[in-house]
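quick one
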Amino acid sequence: METGVKLTKLASCAGCGAKVGAGTLASMLEGFRTHKDPRLLVGYDKSDDACVYQLDESTALVQTTDFFPPIVDDPFLYGQIAAANALSDVYAMGGEPRLALNILCLPEQMEEDTVRELLRGGYDKVYEAGAVIAGGHTIHGAEPIYGLAVTGFVDPRRMLTNSAARPGDALILTKPLGIGVLTTAAKADLVPEPVLRRIHRQMAALNRATRDVMVRHDVHSCTDVTGFGLLGHSLEMAQGSGCTLRIRTADVPFHPEAWELADMGFLPAGAYRNRDYAECGVEAGAVSRTMQDLLYDPQTSGGLLLALPMEEAADCLRELRAAAPEAAFIGCVTERGENWIVLE
Ligand code: CO
Ligand code: CO
Ligand code: CO
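structure w/ cobalt (II) ion:
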């Protein structure tokens, strides 16, 4: 659906590229008083995708929220992408989403039909996920914002944190990179229609099938690759796990059209923030600046990054490819070395 006012023109930065830098948040929260609750298995201090709260031996709540300004002009697609992105954090913990709440901010000039299409996109994805939208909250504001707060469940004995990778694990990434670069260039009409359709399909795709494959294997650790880019999220996994991640850049899947655009300097602001945050933990060796830029590129509704035993990895990858055809081995986990991440 095309609308009078271009949705992305109402937004100052697009999708997960609007995310506040990881370092900024951590330092702002320092020194606050909080209760200690042993049932909170994963909390804010873990920088994981979602929090996990134990209910009984075999059941834990998984809660998360994600929302952002329009990343595309089609309101239905925007709704789908924002919902898929929010649901993804539950999948990244190995959980299943059950309930969702709409989070919506609307500028006065947004037409009713546009808002309806946006919400229809969100409902469409939540339905596909097998979950229910149970309510929400809407306010007026200068820029449109949409997303969800999501509640799901996971067996706490089988939950997947981003801090449990082990030396000897293989790393798999399930969706190609370059979304931030391509959506930034799309604002200047520099991305051909077929490429746009491809990245739109990718962003709207749930990580549900990927999660279903993942929980059938002995995966040690998982996170979804979103606003902090592959290297930002890899750094969290490396530090949380106390290991070094070695990434073979030649094997990292990315949209080939993003290369030339990144080379020309079409980088979202988030790519620079991600570099500032993660760079000191990354040994880049002889890897080109353009490749590095793609590795720092913020993804919206990106794929999952999995760490699992080498012996399981080939089987898992074969099954993953039915759901995520571009899933690939991108490296391995080693004992902690001088740097958290080594690019080769
Ligand atoms: Co996440
Ligand atoms: Co998130
Ligand atoms: Co996780």
